[in-house]
Structures are given as C-alpha cells and as structure tokens.
Amino acid sequence: MIKYNLKMGVNNIADLLRKKIGSTKVKTSEEYLLSYSYDSTGIKKKPDIVAFPENESDISNILKIASKFKIPLTPRGGGLGYSGGSVPVEGGIVLAFSRMNRIIRFDEKNLLMEVEPGVITSKVIEVSESRGLFYPPDPASLKNSTIGGNVSENAGGPRCFKYGVTSDYVMAVEGFLMNGEKVKFGSYSIKDVSGYDIKKLIVGSEGTLIVLSKIILRVIPKPESRILIRVGFSSMRSGADFIMKIIRFNLSPSVLEFIDKTSLDAVNKYLQTEKDSSINSVVLLELDGGKEEIANKLNSLKQLASEFGINDIEIADNEDDMEELWSIRRNLSPAISSLKPKKINEDIAVPIGNVPDAIEYISGLADEYNINVVMFGHLGDGNIHTNVMIDPSNKREVENSKIVLDKIFKYVISVKGTISGEHGIGLSKKEFLGYQYSEREIEIFRKIKGVFDPENLLNPGKIF
C-alpha cells in the first residue's frame, strides 16, 4: 500500500507533481499504470503515479515531494529485468527515465562519455563505434535496455569474459538521495582512491540507494577486426570441457558462450532454421584484435579442436555472417519461452573450474524431477543462465521446480558460487539471499541502505 499521508490522496499528490515539473510529465491513467506495473519476471503491481523526469530539477522535485509525504518511489529503465527490480511492489511513484535519453558529451580526448540513465545501451555502443571507439558491455537486451538499468544491475553480456562488466566502465555517477539532495561519486580519472569507493557500491545496488541522473562511462580503442566461431559438440559435458580448455589455452576470446541442446532446438524452431540432431551443445567464440593476432589464435583454436576430435566448426568473418550466428544467442530468451507457459530465469555463477560439474549436476536434477531445465550463458566466467520451464497449472511441475531451484542454489553456494551473476536479487531471489550471506552480513546491507534511504522509500521491498 502507498505510504503517503492519506489526507492528501493520489490525485492531490499528482497535482503537486504537475505544478512542480509540468502536467505532461505526470500520468495516472489506467493504461500508464498497467504499462509500468511489471518487468520480464511477469510479477505485477500497479503504481499510483508514473512520472517522466526530463532533467535533474525534475528528479529533485519529484523526490522532495515523495519524501515529504512518505511515498515509495521505484526507478525504471527499460523494464526488462529478470528479478522484479523495477516492479513497484508498494505502489507509489514509478520514475520512468525514457525522456532522459541524451548522450550529454562525448570526450574523445579522455575516452569518456557522459550519458543520462535512459539512454539505450545499443546507442552507446553505436555512437562509440562511429568514432572508432568501443563500449564493450553488451547484454542480450542491448537494443532495449537502458544504461541506467545496466548500472543498477551491473549488467554483463557475452563480451564480459574478456572485457568485464558494466562496473568496469563506470567512471563516476551523479544522482539524488531520496530527500532530493544531489550527490556524486567517482571521478573522471582512471585512478582514484580518495575516500570509500561508493561508486562501486552504487553500481549493482538495484536502484535502492540513489536515483541516477548522469553516468560517466569510459570507452576504449576499437579492435582492428574480429571473427566469430561456432563449435558444435555431441554432449553438453564436452562443450563445457572445451570451454575450460580454451581458458587454459590462453586464447583470450572476447566472447565465450555456451548453448545447450534444448536451447538449440527451441531457437531453430523459433527462427525456422534447420537443426543437426547430432549436436547437443554449441560454443560461440569471438576473437578480436589485430589480423595477425587473430590468425594465430585461430590456428591454435583449430589445433585444440582437432585434439578434441571436433570437425563441426563454422567461422564468420563479416558482419552479415556474424549477425546470423549471433541470432542464435540473441533469440534464445524468446525462443525458449515457447517451451512452457512459464520461464523461471535464474543466473547462477560458479568458479570457472566447477562449470562442467555444475552443468552435469543441474542436468541430473532435471532428469530426476522430470523438469525441463534450459542452460546457456557466459560459461567463460562461470555464469550459467538456468531456465526452469514449467506449466503453472501442473501442480507436480510447480512443486518439483521449487525443489530443483532450492537444490541448485544450495549446490552453487556449496562450491563457493553466487545465486545471481548479473540479474540481481530484486524480488525473485530474496528468499534465497540467506543461503549466501549470514544474518549479520544481511544486517550490514540493511544498515548501508539506511544511510542512503533512512525511510526505506526508494525501491522498497527489494533484495532483503
């Protein structure tokens, strides 16, 4: 329920907001409330008001009103999260950043760019590449997700194996506390040890600490060239083992992705492409750098593949062919959604040496409990996207899925892994946070939250 003074009422709060930031930036109609009530989890809770700030002044004014009347506020980017992070579970105001979508400044001299949180990720990548530079983080949702959302969840993507995740490219952040006071953390310098690294704390905090208004990103020189390689395997274990060999072989691929048989079958059906029944897993590798460097690495890769007895190798060295190969990975989420009415999307991560065993363990659970579990993801850094597919009307599947997920999370913690590699805790994994952290450790999280947001109004109900 909304926490504001009931004497004010929703309409009066909306009127106050309209007077402060403009009538076109505040919506209370049913279609807007429904449109901003859910994310990719399918969890739904309608807000009472949707506000569209266009500048920092708007953000500050909205926060001051929300703080004064004790109204919960939920920041929202593209609304594509898989953990319920942008669902307004306590109603109140959704702060939608679709109108704060400008690249403020591109500093080629210092390899920096200043962006607003509503900028679409692909736009950052495209603008960088148009200047001969490179912004590596590339989550699967890059054509629709926002930089603000990426920062809030510390998004990764296929290139994270070589280049790292969003936090590795955030130089500084600016934003507002819940009371409307502006703060900034980090700097425009590559090295900075002046005080606590609060910027790192903000990145991945799921919108629970501050409301972002500006993000300073670093970019790097664009690699001279790249090629994409698809390798097929007769079993899932052999594909996972091959990835471990690639890592130890020191080929430093920019992408090292794994796709299981169920995923392949689903995406081939979804894209209406032919499938090879002998292929039970696929590894996608991207090599980038100088042309001579790539040629040497490709020769090493072929040698390694021959030692594995692999003959099914496809190489793409132009944009069209690479895009065709990438379409397999980019379309996995919608493709597997057709397998069952409900997809429980988890993103566990384990130490890289445990990846093959983890794949086998999860496959064994799927067989034991007769549950459809689809696996793919960034196995190069141990991040396994584990999708449990069920029919909610089937009580057996529902109960077995709970058992399977519980066992998966306990297994992950037993091998020193994490219950979330990049999707965040949000709503969907709150009950499992205690598997990874002690009560004392979670209490420290709560105290940190209290320093930034003592009234617990900013994205409440998430993480703990």
Written overview of the protein:
By secondary structure, this protein is an alpha+beta fold. The protein folds into four domains: 9-99, Uridine Diphospho-n-acetylenolpyruvylglucosamine Reductase, domain 2; 103-221, Uridine Diphospho-n-acetylenolpyruvylglucosamine Reductase, domain 3; 225-324, Alpha-Beta Plaits (2-Layer Sandwich), CATH 3.30.70; 339-423, Alpha-Beta Plaits (2-Layer Sandwich), CATH 3.30.70.2740. The protein is built from 16 helices and 18 strands. It has a seven-stranded antiparallel β-sheet with strand order 15-12-14-13-17-18-16, sandwiched between helices. β5 (103-107) and β6 (112-115) form a beta hairpin. α1 (9-21) packs antiparallel against α3 (56-68).
Short description:
By secondary structure, the chain is α+β, with helices and mostly antiparallel strands. It contains 16 helices and 18 strands.
What is the CATH C level class of the largest domain, in words?
Alpha Beta
State the secondary-structure class: alpha+beta
- Major beta-sheet overview: 7 strands, antiparallel
Query: What would the principal axes of the Cα set say about the shape?
Result: globular
Helix content: 25-40%
Strands of the biggest beta sheet: in what spatial order?
15-12-14-13-17-18-16
Q: Total domains, how many? A: 4
Number of strands: 18
Examine the coordinates and then state which fold CATH places here, giving the name of the CATH topology of the largest domain: Uridine Diphospho-n-acetylenolpyruvylglucosamine Reductase, domain 3
The radius of gyration over CA amounts to 23 Å
- Strand portion: 15-25%
Return the CATH architecture of the largest domain.
Answer: 2-Layer Sandwich
- Tell me the span between the first and last alpha carbons: 18 Å
Stretches with pLDDT under 50, minimum 5 residues = none
Look at the structure and give the mean pLDDT: 93
What is the helix tally?
A: 16
